[in-house]
Amino acid sequence: MKLLTTILLLSLLTACSDDGDSNNSNNANNVNNANNVDNGNNGNNSNNANNVNNVNNGNNSNNANNSNNQNNMNDMGADMPMPIVEMEPNGGSTLDEVNDGEVDREIQGSIQDAGDADVFKFTFDSGSVYHVTVVPSGDLQPHVTVFDAGRRGDDAGEDYVKIVRTAALAQAEMDFIAMGAGDHFIAIRDARTVDGTATGGAGFDYTLHVTEVPMADRIRGMLQDGSSVSGNLGSIGGLDLYQVTGTENQDVRITLTSQGTMDARLYMIAETTGDWVMRNDNANGADPELDAFFPLSGPMLVVVEQIGEDATGFDYTLIMRLGQ
Ligand SMILES: [Ca+2]
Ligand SMILES: [Ca+2]
């Protein structure tokens, strides 16, 4: 348990801080073999189950508080749930040192010490889109990381990572789509800490709010053989979706060409499983290309994101070709 969580923060501080997902950086194409998910992971699955139980046990006292909050809310007759107030330690240095977060419930936290990291654990619906908002106060420069809590026996952050950062007092916003099995973490630090200067202190407060986004709000169109579409992510943490109909074993190539300085990344998600089946980050310079075959038939979503922390300019062109 200790090992996993040590790696958890290490992965935050190293691999995640550069390009957002080191796994994707160099692989020409990364195909998720559904068979691998099912086979040979029984032992790991039981470990995961234990880890989940440990985390839940560690947070029983929080749950008790939550129910008290719920009662208070009812007493007050309020429509909004009471905010969650972070409880240190929650830096993720052990699996128990995280706080539970909830969609549609504000979290109030503070980077109260230089170098403080706050880690919150969420359960999201696989295949659903969420919007993360961090509103800072004081001199806080929010650095926000969303990452998986560990899948297929891998450590947390090995499968999915997305990062946004802002200048002092600027609100940080991010869309992401939950995919695959298991929970997700959201970690908040000061951006200068990530850059190597431990930063924090009195007044470095923030609120974290996660809401679900209707899928239709992010779907920009449908791709077919020969499609060429232009889009704009809109912001550093934006997310665009395109619908594709997959035919098992058919070759598909989807090429993204970005303008500006964004570092685009592509995923393809099978709607029937809520998990990714293809992904790529840097096939052509910083531009991604999916070049693989559909591992199954059915409706798919192509996910366009960008992971450059200082990116400006979010225009792109997307071209899809189906194989013969
Ligand atoms: Ca804190
Ligand atoms: Ca890229």
Q: How does this structure look, described?
A:
- This protein is α+β, with helices and mostly antiparallel strands and 324 residues long.
- 20% of the residues lie in helices and 36% in strands.
- It contains seven helices and 20 strands.
- It has helices spanning 2-13, 15-18, 22-26, 34-38, 42-58, 60-76, 191-194; strands at residues 30-31, 84-85, 99-100, 107-110, 118-122, 129-136, 142-148, 161-165, 172-177, 184-190, 205-213, 219-222, 228-232, 240-246, 251-258, 264-270, 275-280, 289-293, 298-306, 315-322.
- It has a six-stranded mixed beta sheet with strand order 1-17-16-19-14-12, with no helix packed on it. It has a five-stranded mixed beta sheet with strand order 2-4-11-6-9, with no helix packed on it. A five-stranded mixed beta sheet has the order 3-5-10-7-8.
- Strand 16 (264-270) and strand 17 form a beta hairpin.
- The longest helix is centred in the N-terminal third of the chain and has 17 residues, at 42-58.
- The radius of gyration is 20 Å and the shape is globular.
- It starts with a helix and ends with a strand.
- The structure holds calcium ion (2 copies).
- Residues 263-265, 281-282, 286, 288 line the site of one calcium ion.
- Residues 86, 88, 109-112, 116, 118 line the site of one calcium ion.
